[in-house]
Every structure is written in structure tokens, then in C-alpha cells.
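ping. complex inputs:
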Amino acid sequence: MDADQLTIAVVGAGGKMGMRVSNNLQRGGHTVRYSENSPAGRQRTTDAGRELTETSTAVADADVVILAVPDIALAPVSAEVVPQLRPGAIVLTLDPAAAYANLLFRREGIEYAVAHPCHPSVFLQRRTEAELNDTFGGIAAPQEVVAALESGDPAAQAVAETVIRQMYAPVVDVHWVTVKQLAYLEPTLVEVVACMVGDLLKEALHETVHTVGVPEAAARAMLLGHVQVALANTLKGDNPFSDACLIAMTYGREKIIKEDWKSIFDDDELDSVLTRMLHLDAISR
Ligand SMILES: NC(=O)c1ccc[n+]([C@@H]2O[C@H](COP(=O)([O-])OP(=O)(O)OC[C@H]3O[C@@H](n4cnc5c(N)ncnc54)[C@H](O)[C@@H]3O)[C@@H](O)[C@H]2O)c1
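pong. complex structure:
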């Protein structure tokens, strides 16, 4: 397998991630094939100037097959695709949930990798308008990526990293961890905690405006500036909080956070959230 001239198949090329990774892969020097089964996804793929290929043709001689389909479709899609792959091919999924829950169709001699974009850091020094507008990443703002390769094979990892750097470009760094560690990053750290906190902030803003009656512009300005200060103080150590603020923070914890909240880092709880996310009855290992 020549990492400079790969054949890559994107299955689900017309979906949200399929479109993003295809836009970037299209600009590289590799051979890329695009497969998509919904009429809307097929339309989006051809509107973007990409030619559609039947899945079986697209994956047959691919070095890397990106399964950009919904997590709940990964079991049937991998069961259809993996038996058609050439030995040594890499199956690359974009979220660890299905791999960790053991839903991917297994075949000896096939490499299984997962790569999740970190999205551009909240502390990124953005220099251009394009970087400023690229909050998701993959367009202009540099981001890091966390990835896992089940076998740990260095040659397969090098090939996977080549594709990962291109499909999520611009990429600063790729961090290699285990599938389980990646599952504790997403969903636990970033969806269960960070995205939930973001939603809580939105709800708190709504209450401040609609229940208390504070003018929206004032409340929004106060919140957005303080979110930056809160993150810079806690995660970057920029400035200490005032003594009064620390008392208010303790009150907030007591009112809002359950005492046993750190149980989300127990394996049983990871299984529990993944079971819900993947619409499963249980996770079998
Ligand atoms: N959306 C995000 O922000 C995001 C971020 C990081 C990772 N991910 C991961 O990316 C993956 C894809 O998620 P998404 O949000 O892009 O999903 P999506 O629903 O937007 O797109 C999935 C696409 O796959 C197509 N598809 C389904 N079955 C197919 C098949 N058998 N053959 C060909 N095409 C098929 C669908 O028609 C659809 O266009 C998931 O694993 C998700 O967890 C998503």
C-alpha cells in the first residue's frame, strides 16, 4: 500500500460528515470514490461535482473505506461492506461508539480505525475571517484529531493518519489512543459533559431573559464574555476567580450538580449511555 497514492472510498458521501470529508479528500492527490444510498445524499454528492459509484465497486479495491453513515447503521453497513474488502484494507469510522459497542462486522486481516475531529480549540488564535467562521473545523481553522487503530500496526496507522490529516484538514496533530479511551472522550467528556453544559448555558440565558426580564442583548453580552473568562481561568489558569465568585460557584455546584456525577466515568455508565445512543438493549462483548 503506497501512502502517497491511496484509493479511498467514502460510504455515505452525501451526509453531513460525508460531505465535509469528501470536500477535503477531493482536493488531495488520492483516488476517491463516493457512494451514497439516499436520493438527497446522492443529489448533494453530484451537486458538489463528485461522481457516484456503487458501494460494491467503490470499496472493492479501496485501501481505506470511510464509513460516514449514521452510527445506528454501522452494523448492517459494515456487514455488507467488510466481506467485499481486499485483505489489509482499513475500515475507518468517524465515531468510537459502534466500534466500542462491538457492532462492526469483524473479519480477520482487516484493520479497524476510528478518527474523531476535536474541532478547533476555543483558545485558538484565529488570524483570518475564514478561520474565525470555521467553528466546526475542516475548512480553515486548524484542529487536532483523536484516533484509534485496533491492531496498533504502525504501517496501517501511518496510512490511516495520512487519510485522517487530509479529510479533517487543516490538522495540527493526531493523537492515537485506544477505542475505549476515545469512547470516554466522546461521548463522555465532550457530549455528556461539555455539550450538556453548553445547552445548560443556553437554558440559563433563556431564563434570565424570559423569566427575570433582563434585556436579551445585556444578558447575552454578559454571558458570552464570562464564558470566555470562566474557561480561560479554569482550563488555562489565566486569572484567579474572586473570593465572592468562588462562593457563588460552590453554591452553583450544590444546586445544580449531583453528588455522584463522576460515576459517568464508570464502565457501566459508559455502556449505559452508549446503549441509549445506539438504540440497543445491551452491549455485548
Ligand atoms: N455530524 C457530526 O457533527 C459528526 C461529527 C463527528 C463524527 N460524526 C460521525 O460521522 C458519522 C456520520 O454521521 P453524520 O452526522 O454525517 O450522518 P448523516 O445522517 O448526516 O449522513 C449519513 C449518510 O449516510 C448515508 N447512508 C446510510 N446508509 C448508507 C449505505 N448503506 N450506503 C451508502 N450511504 C448510506 C445516508 O443517506 C446519509 O447521507 C457517524 O459515525 C457520526 O457519529 C458526526
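Residues 11-12, 14-18, 35-38, 41, 55, 68-71, 73, 77, 93-95, 116 surround nicotinamide-adenine-dinucleotide (CB under 6 Å).
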